Amino acid sequence: MASGVKIMGELTKPCQVSRIDRESFRMILTQGLNRQIRRMCSALGYKAQRLAARANHEHSLGTLSSGQWRHLTDRELAGLLPR
Questions:
Q1: What is the pLDDT of residue 83?
Q2: Predicted confidence (pLDDT) per residue in 41-73, tens digit
Q3: Among 24, 32, 29, residue whose Cα is nearest residue 14
Q4: Residue 9, Cα to own-chain centre: how many angstroms?
Q5: Whole-angstrom distance, CA of residue 72 vs CA of residue 30
Q6: Dihedral of the alpha carbons of 57, 60, 80, 8, in degrees to the nearest 10
Q7: Beta bridge pairs of residue 10
Q8: Do residues 80 and 74 make contact, with C-beta atoms less than 8 angstroms apart?
Q9: SS3 call for 74
């Protein structure tokens, strides 16, 4: 996964991967394709049992449930724009 995985006919961008324990690992994606983690795991013979999104740089998910969204704060927006 650290060098990319071929899914949906294209090679994903590399991501950071670290093992947590025998059955778990942490991934930091640099791209967000639809169902990317599940598809990458499947391509390598793994089955994703549970996924937990933690944060996106300085942007916390907070109390948002799946499918919900919110507007970015001015500070968050400034952090995304080129300087």
A1: 59
A2: 999 998 888 888 765 555 666 788 888 888 888
A3: 29
A4: 19
A5: 20
A6: 70
A7: 7
A8: no
A9: helix
With beta carbons less than 8 A apart as the criterion, state whether 53 and 28 touch.
no
| Cα–Cα distance, 70 to 54 (Å, whole number) | 16
Phi-psi region of 22 (alpha: psi -120 to 50; beta: other; left: phi over 0): alpha
**HEC profile for 2-60?**
CCCCEECCEECCCCEEEEEECCEEEEECCCCCCCHHHHHHHHCCCCCCCCCCCEECCEE
Q: 6 has which bridge partners? A: 11
Report whether 16 contacts 2 (CB < 8 A). Answer: yes
Residue bearing tokens 């949906």? 8
pLDDT tens digits, one per residue of 10-27:
999 988 899 999 888 888
